[in-house]
Amino acid sequence: IEEIEPKDLDDYIANFLIQVRKQDGEQYEPTTLRSFVSSFDRYLKKQDYSTSIIDGKEFRKTRDVLTAKQKELKKAGKGNKPNAARSLTDKEVDILYGQNLLGCSSAESLVNTLWLNNTEHFGLRGFKEHRDMKWGDVVEKTTAEGITYLEYNERQTKTRTGADPKDSRTVKPKMFAVEGSERNPLQVFHIYSSKRPDDMKNPESPFYLAINHTKNDQSCKPWFK
Q: Distance between CA 191 and CA 186 in Å, rounded?
């Protein structure tokens, strides 16, 4: 293709983008078409071609066709990946407890449960908010009616810098006890507290600790370090 004049090559590539299909006749993803063009451009650069497909004025038709084809494919549902997070269903949570991936039977399941509870009850949005949590950020309190709960006192993070009042929680998030349930979030918190090393119970200590992995379930080795 390096021997084809830019004007003719522009026509050829534009027509290619319009007509190209997978072997089964299906359309390619919008990002795949972009990858084709980028590959052509890289090849031509290695051959010292006189201009660039990406930004050369001679390849305006190719770029216009690529943009139009990508829009058309997106309208048809291509390129719409399910990136948004969704809540776990009750059935999925039951399965995780049944497989001991959630619960208090091990250090791993305990940390998984803490993460899920903190996400659901405290509304933590991303990994940085979890990572930045300190042990002193979560405080156990009791209402006037004698109901015990955990309260989260959030710090400034990348997603909540404090610069925008709209980006701050007006009410401190709370996690209430569920009496008589093995999934009681306060019971999970208390067990985690009992398993933490004493020197990791300072207010500035990280909330999440590293797991002491062991193959022996009866080991007296501490759960966390």
A: 9
